[in-house]
Amino acid sequence: LELTRTELAVAQHRNRLGWLWWLVDPLIFIGIFWIFKTILLGREAYTPYPMFVGSALIAWRFFSSILNSSAGMIRSRASLIRSVAFPLAVLPISRVAVESVFFLIALVILTCVAPLFGVSMGSTVIQLPALFLAQVALALGLSLFAAGIGMVIYDLPSIMSHLLRVVFYLSPVIYGANLVVSRFGEESIWSWIYLHSPLAIL
């Protein structure tokens, strides 16, 4: 808990906007993708698009931030590890806890602005805790794995950065999963692989 509070304090004081950057970054992407969506797919695709891509980007930011930071986390905290004895798993767990706080704040804001776009959350709100816990479990498991591998592969942070960029465009963040199904067909092996991806499901 102390490490998590420290991480939150550092995130707050590192920049003038502090935690707000967690929201500003997705908002910038939403604006960019909305322009390209309007040009390429038309105004009626995935309406309302800000809510569609906003919810996906918040979830993606949570997932990618954890993996990016976990890849070289243990090596970057070498001085702390040498000075204080504690389980190394605490480091990625604290990172997940910090990102969970940011994610929940963004999720509350997204839920509050949904009616402004004519979106009624309804019974969907009941499913959010289960989806959140599933995403935390996935991110935690992968972050523990990445943190361990990062101790051996020094270039893992760079590799992870490029890998996540590829996964981003292969996941239904800026486009819907139905686009892949309609392109390759429901019986296609590509559609099966895509739809069974944990990120596509979440």
Average of pLDDT: 77
Q: DSSP strand (E) fraction?
A: under 5%
Structural class: mainly alpha
> What does the main sheet amount to?
none
Order of helices and strands: HHHHHHHHHHH
* Radius of gyration over C-alpha positions, nearest whole angstrom: 18 Å
- Unreliable runs, pLDDT <50, ≥5 residues? none
- Measured as a percent range, the helix fraction is over 70%
How far apart are the termini? 27 Å
Total beta-strand segments:
0
Query: Given the C-alpha coordinates, what overall shape results?
Result: globular
Describe, in plain words, how this protein is organized in 3D.
The chain is an all-alpha fold and 202 residues long. 74% of the residues lie in helices and 0% in strands. Helix 9 packs antiparallel against helix 10. It is globular.
Task: Briefly summarize what is shown.
The chain is mainly α. 74% of the residues lie in helices and 0% in strands.
Features:
mainly alpha, 11 helices, 202 residues, globular
List the helices and strands and how they pair.
Layout: H1 2-14, H2 21-40, H3 49-70, H4 73-76, H5 78-83, H6 90-113, H7 124-150, H8 156-169, H9 177-184, H10 189-195, H11 198-201
